[in-house]
Design brief:
The chain is α+β, with helices and mostly antiparallel strands and 342 residues long. The chain is 27% helix and 37% strand. The N and C termini lie far apart (131 Å). The structure holds S-adenosylmethionine. S-adenosylmethionine (SAM) binds next to helix 3 and strand 6.
Length: 342
């Protein structure tokens, strides 16, 4: 069945009339100029056939085309939207994520063996003062917290290392050092202080606990004579300090610093000229006798300050320095020397 519509022949293949063949029906295959316009069921009323068919064809073709186009464009649009959404969402998600919070240390936070409490800056300064830190020093802070002691030492020109178990504190310290412009001299390592080698230090700083100090003491006493040890507040048991300093300005808690100088090891018997020097050493304190012929003089005021030794025997004051199994110095404006016998 053909329908002339505005000069265009529209042909219906498969026309079904369902009321009256001239009045209404449906078309399943609709052609125009031999080309398939569409597949489907088109209902039309005869009276309005031309209009309806045209409308239907046009509309349907249009709709169909539009639908196809829309399907295609929907396809792309969906993907485009999905694509955009992905980025928008990803961006949004990224923005929605709270910016990675910089680690904020809390005073009293757990540490492996000691909680974190920072040394007041005024005491840090005092600790480095009494240790007489210079640019020649290598300062190691055991349990370095936020890095303040290491950074302060580095600002004085010293090379400094912080040994800290908490990795967040280590990263924080590195950031702090960089901010202070001493990232090169102030180094930090994430490590257990008990498993660390700090034998190269010339100055050890620490703010730990009395029992930890005691545990570290044998290792500290084996450090190079003259190594300075400074502790915030806590002592070393019966190893009395060589100096105590208290900060009363700008410091309300933890304001006492103790300094120890690692003494040389002199305990034993020495040959001093024709005499025998028998020394008993308790940390930096020395006692004993100096025997010469039938005379035995008690050692008094015997003390070690690193490798520097002083003592009095028979009314003569001896000063000198120790170098392993040898000592030498002056006494009564004359020179003396001694070598270890055993
Ligand atoms: C009292 S804070 C002192 C911090 C810093 N030295 C100061 O004076 O400001 C002790 C520090 O030691 C750290 N610490 C505890 N046990 C440790 C261990 N076994 N090895 C390394 N660091 C440790 C803690 O995380 C803490 O930062």
């Amino acid at each position: 069945m053909k329908f002339p519509i505005s000069g265009v022949d529209v042909e219906c293949h498969k026309w079904d009339s369902f009321q009256h063949p001239e009045k209404s029906g449906s078309c399943d295959l609709l052609f125009s100029n031999g080309n398939l316009l569409d597949l489907g069921v088109w209902r039309m009323k005869t009276a309005e056939r031309s209009t309806m068919v045209r409308t239907l064809v046009a509309n349907q073709s249009f709709n169909s085309l539009k639908e196809k186009q829309m399907k295609v464009s929907h396809f792309f649009r969906h993907w485009f939207i999905a694509f955009c959404l992905f980025f928008v969402c990803a961006g949004g998600f990224a923005q929605a994520q709270p910016a990675k919070q910089e680690f904020q240390p809390q005073v009293g936070q757990e540490g492996k063996d000691v909680v974190w409490v920072p040394t007041p800056q005024a005491l840090v300064d005092k600790m480095l003062d009494i240790a007489k830190v210079t640019p020649k020093d290598y300062v190691i802070d055991l349990g370095s917290g936020d890095g303040r002691t290491v950074i302060t030492a580095a600002k004085r020109g010293a090379k400094a290392l912080g040994i800290e178990y908490n990795p967040d504190m280590v990263e924080l310290s590195k950031r702090n050092a960089a901010k202070e412009g001493v990232g090169d001299k102030a180094q930090f390592t994430k490590a257990d202080l008990f498993a660390s080698d700090f034998s190269q230090a010339t100055v050890i700083t620490m703010f730990l606990l009395p029992d930890i100090n005691l545990k570290l003491r044998p290792k500290i006493l084996n450090l190079k004579p003259g190594t300075r040890i400074v502790s915030n507040t806590f002592d070393m048991g019966e190893w009395t300090d060589d100096e105590t300093a208290i900060v009363d300005k700008g410091c309300t808690n933890w304001c006492t610093a103790h300094l120890w100088i690692v003494p040389a090891k002199v305990d034993g018997t020495w040959q001093l000229g024709q005499g025998e020097l028998a020394l008993k050493q308790t940390f930096q304190m020395i006692s004993g006798t100096l025997k010469s012929g039938n005379n035995t003089a008690q050692i008094t005021n015997g003390k070690l300050h690193g490798d520097q030794i002083t003592f009095t025997a028979g009314g003569v004051q001896y000063t000198g320095h120790v170098n392993g199994n040898a000592m030498e110095g002056t006494a009564n404006n004359g020179k003396w020397s001694a070598t270890r016998r055993r």
